[in-house]
Batch of 2 targets.
Target 1
Amino acid sequence: MPKITVDGKVIEAKDRQMVLQACLDAGVALPQYCYHPGLSIPASCRICLVEVEGIPKLVPSCQTPVRDGMVVYSKSSKAIANQKAVMEYLLINHPLDCPVCDQAGECYLQDYSYEYGRSQSRFEEDKQKKPKKDVGENILLYNDRCIMCTRCVRFTREVSGTSELYVDGRGSKEEIDIFPGKPLNNKLASNVVDLCPVGALLDKDFLFKQRVWLLKQAPSISPVDAGGENIFLEYNEGIIYRIKPRYNAEVNTWWISDDTRYSYKAVHSENRLTKPMRTQYGTQVETDYAGAIEHADSALKELVKTNGAGSTYAMLSPMMANEEAYLLATYIRSIDPQAVLVLGPTPSSGADEVFKNPANGKVTFTIKAEKVPNAAGIRRVIEKLGGPKATFEDFTKAESAELKKLKGGWIVGGYLSAWLPTEVPALFKKGLRIVQDILPTSLSGSCDVLLPAAAWAEKDGSWENFAGKIQPFLAAVPPPDGARREGDVYYKLLGRTGMYNAEDVRGEMGEPFAQIPLPDLETLAPAPEFIEL
Amino acid sequence: MKDSDVIVLEEPKLSLGDQFYIPQVLNGLGTTMKHMFRVLGGKDRVVQYPEEKREDLAIEKGGMLTRTYRGVHRLNKDEEGRVKCVACFMCSTACPARCIHIEADESPWADREKYPAKFDIDELRCIYCGMCEEACPVDAIELTHVYDIVGLTRQEMIFDKSKLLQVYDETVKNEPM
Ligand code: SF4
Ligand code: SF4
Ligand code: SF4
Ligand code: FES
């Protein structure tokens, strides 16, 4: 392992690593605009230039491989003069937009101006004004804020492989643009907003909604498919404003799909179920939550008493956390030891969407076909608990003797969009149906007891992705008034005291759930491209 | 919350003198008398509000500096009479009392990007520190010398954008931007 000295500090680097990356890994801050660990290295912005002993000119640290015994200076007078010059040059035509720019607060240009720049401009001529462009369904391009780092262009060429963006013109006329009639609308498009070190590429969905420094982050997992992309839910005062990728080398690296990015909208949908209901003389009437839970409990017990063991089922939704599925299954088995556990519908888009770098054919990102996050986890929970179980297909047909005996049960939805299959199971139309869901369906409008539930962003838990990786997520916002977290309902039904605590339940569930570490915000490794100033 | 985080406060014990409360009443009256005699003796001054107002008096007569007084806020207007604020949230970020609530939106004007669709200040919560005025990059928010604001409900004391612009119209003559 080569050792290099940076500003007097000895750091260990990996073989063939670039100086900049070695420094970042060792926690030594160096400025960078164009360099991104997930993209090719053009070394075009020149802010990262450093002095290396034995080389007369400054070298770009992002593109210079380490050599054992290398001595690097990033704070020598030559290096500092370059940083100041680059900053001044970048700001020549930069508008004074920070008060109205959505990037303010997480802008490299702001941070580096503070750290490496000067507070005054010596430029006296008129600034160039470049047009604002609508480049895609979700994305705006403010060309005059662009610093031409070409990260966005490289992303569309190397990661999404769709090449919508290109550089038009040269010199001061240089601009990022799209080809006429070919908007930036691929399924990974909004990643360019995260990539852009300045406020040139902005998300229309987040535009002017909040200032970024007001947002708090909760580590979470993508709810839209089985990929298990790691994300941050960014919220303020009980409202989620945006979703940002959370770096995970094994799962999603730096990127997330646009479906994931905008999935938070269902959480704040106006249609959210917030009124607990129960059926009285054939019609649904509103009731209080405690009453609804009690009613559900006694109705289930009554059913088992008259029809005997094996007459109930629990449909565990693949949107549920493992912990919740475990608690519900434990509860229903405590009433009816022969209760059938069913995994809810797992919609699929048919085939995985694979993104490749056209230059070398390497797979850069995959959007999974299975459009639910936790089918694997629920299967594991059902397997672990043993006893009678059924697939959703069998449950729909209800042909076997075991399934014909079913008289009622507990159905959990929680899907972010319409989920009832076209062929609705006969059991969803008759018998005792206790439903927990977040959005209205024909089932929630006709069931015997309706318990409004919480969306994934409102509770703690864990999900298992397609590759068997179990990942925890934390709540960002409270459930809406009138809805309750599933976990709390099951705690009540099981006669447990206190509030639902996902970590405790995981401990109780045993391996492999017990040893999942919680993402700790303090120690959570920031994406390697992020530099703390 | 840990037990060590809990602070238990005890009611103070009353002494015998306190329990008799007549000495305490006389004590209080004494303070009133002291001030009365100081005024009669010409040592203290009483401003006969509302006939007399501090802003009309000379400084040495107990008046105040209207330019620096920190009273109710106003939102300034630009030359075209539009709200000057660009909804940057600097004021609400700087505000230690967290009493400024802004909702930003795309501006309806071609020459401006962003403007406040809503701008509410809770004048009861405000501590009149002037941080908002200090923070504003476009001099859109200012504290005026108006202090005699009243309302019958708390809701009335949450000043919205139109009211804050109205304060500007009322005060701009005496206190130009
Ligand atoms: S890109 Fe950065 S420096 Fe430029 S206006 Fe936006 S926040 Fe300010
Ligand atoms: S739009 Fe942003 S990412 Fe693209 S070149 Fe300009 S500054 Fe870089
Ligand atoms: S600081 Fe000024 S411009 Fe910014 S939101 Fe407050 S009043 Fe508006
Ligand atoms: S030249 Fe090295 S980061 Fe841009």
Note: Chain B has a mean pLDDT of 92.
Target 2
Amino acid sequence: MVFFRKKKDMPNGLWVRCDGCKGVVYKKTVEERMFVCPDCNHHFRIFSKDRLNFLLDENSFEEFWENMVPCDPLHFKDRITYPERVAAEQKKTGLKEAAIVGQGKIEGKPVMVGITDPSFIMGSMGAVVGEKIARIAEKATELRLPLIIISGSGGGARMQEGVFSLMQMAKTSAAIGRFQDAGGLYISVLTDPSLGGVMASFASLADVTIAEPRALIGFAGPRVIQETIRRSLPKGFQTAEFLLEHGFLDRIVHRQDMRKEISKLLDYLQNKK
Amino acid sequence: MVEKSVAELENLVLEVEHQIKDVEGACQKDGVDRSVELKVLRERYEALHEKLRSRLTPYDIVKLARHPLRPLTADYISMIIEDFVELHGDRHFGDDKAIICGLGSIGQERFLFIGQQKGKSTKERIACNFGMPNPEGYRKALQKMMLAEKFGLPIVTLIDTPGANPDIGAEERGQACAIAENIYKMCRLKTPIVNIVIGEGGSGGALGIGIGDKFAILEFAYYSVISPEGCAAILWKNGENASEAASALQLTARDLLRFGVADEILPEPLGAAHKNPRAMADSIKAYIVRCLKELKGIPIEDLLESRYNRYKRTGKYLELG
Ligand SMILES: [Zn+2]
């Protein structure tokens, strides 16, 4: 599955419009290229399960704590209640929450993996995401395995869980801290979009940080910045390329090379403790 | 009986306040004993305040936390800290005036002090960027915290920010990275840390100096994952619903105490901190001394373990089947 736009002028869903070059491209070609536009290399947003398939060895993934679901500690209600929102998002995405964590292999090498999915309430971090990320870091510490976390979050913190979601930034950062103390290798992979509380916590605390081309990455969202400074933002602002230029990324890696590149990093950076 | 509105109550409070002043003035003039009359007036004054306090909505509290006369970090420094030695600069980029750092003492207790500063005059506010720190502010704080750790000084932080600065320069210099780094390092810093929210506790911008072993919040301060206005704009698609959003977010001192996020509420003087800054400062001072004395006695490994668990246990979730 992929976030292809529904367009009346694209019968049978054979064609999709590319957000990068605005061109119309053959859907099957895009899919074969891991949802990357053959014309402009635009990386389409994809679901976390597809990402895991692309990254990990076939059938190597074992999910942990898959039945963890959010509570409603604030009895939060905006236009709809939080439980209603969660139920709608679960139905829409087929996910129970925004994060999936577990163990898998990359070219035969065992790794701990976490991923957040921007299609589930903007990939925002509530108690479930925070707890899963913290637990996978703790498990990686215990089993002395490398940790790879793929972030995708347009929302940062989960507003509907109020201050509890803010505390997840502390929880995940503290767990990464212990993992780092034990000498583990942590690779953070930033995908479009990675913003807010996720970026201001675990996603920014890796030994090696890589991003997909053109991914939107930052602390404040571009809309908030634009409203604050009341002028238009420079071209390419907050893209992966912008972050690389300013020294906050180690590498930008094409989706089709991701598995190979991470495998290479795993070979180079082995824990000798 | 019809309940009086907040505005009516406020007018009554002012009225009684004037009556008290008049009676006091009269006493000074003619020396007549009016203590009974004064006692009655003062009781009435306190009762009205209590009533007013119970009628405040969460959004009223947010507005009190942002009150233009509310005492700021710099005011508390001058009222609380003896022998303050300010330390500037992040050693990389600049000196962010939205975060003040320095060494200070209260009696026998010596510590590193860090506080977010909003500024009072227009000129000050602009210099402090309205209390919205840049990455260099967080990095300055971290550099001083490492110094404190090295020399065995505990750390006290005062939180008062609408949020970290959302602008182009801040993004270019890695706002997210700077905040993440502070949270990560503060979780492991081998020295006691006390956090006190004195006004606005704005999201990640607050958390960037808000990790510690003790957490207190002033009675009319707030601490939230997002501003009520921001939340309303996203979830209600309308900034006008800020009051509703403030209620939904449960961001008041009482909520935080109930959630176990805050350990203590520091009660504010009648009419909030700006009515009697000195009394507020004394209460903050007493809290700092009490915490530092208590934390000093705890072995550092135990302290770090309980700091870790403080955050590990927050947040509710269900595990099905
Ligand atoms: Zn394209």
Note: Chain B is about 50% helix and 15% strand.
